[in-house]
Amino acid sequence: RLAAAREELGLPEGVTAPSLAVGGLAGVQAAGAARGGGCASSDLSAHANGQIPEEALCALRTAPGHRLRGDAAAAFDAMSRAYEQVFGTPLCVTDSYRPLADQIRLRATKPGLAAVPGTSRHGLGRAVDLCGGVEDFGTPQHEWVVQRAPLFGWFHPSWAGRGGSKPEPWHFEFAETATGAGAAPAVP
């Protein structure tokens, strides 16, 4: 069954898509926990949006210089490795975790694009902005990510879609897991 799903979705052999496995995102959580180094926790509820200590976040192995919460980082890296098998390069990231000071600066310089400071999913370590072709609607890269991101616990919010209220082809969010607080929010 897994092999048939992998073939239907165009995933190369050897790539693990956590939500295809029994238990859904449990595999992602386990992968995050296996990273160690203090970044494995996905429960960052003790920290306000944009005020998560660096040591509580996980570095993206496929996008140096970028960080997310543990489960999101593990899932992103799995998706990025699958993307690399198809396009020859890992996913290109322009933005990931966004500290509150950066949220304030972006809101001042790009008020039409940036969320109200303290409400961005970037500030929770649960959002990325992508490049390398993914930032444009209709490209093979964008279509691949939109179609396959849910296999890895990621999604393109409806507000960011082509007909959405704030079209942002580059913006993707990590879905809450069974231990999380709920459904996907409606802010970038």
Automatic annotation (TrEMBL):
Segments traversing the membrane: none
Database matches in SUPFAM superfamilies: Hedgehog/DD-peptidase
Keywords: Carboxypeptidase, Hydrolase, Protease
The keyword Acetylation is annotated on this UniProt entry: no
Start and end residues of each D-alanyl-D-alanine carboxypeptidase-like core domain: 66-175
Biological process terms in GO annotation: proteolysis
One Pfam family from the record: VanY
Molecular function via GO: carboxypeptidase activity
Descriptive protein name: D-alanyl-D-alanine carboxypeptidase
Organism taxonomic ancestry: Bacteria, Bacillati, Actinomycetota, Actinomycetes, Kineosporiales
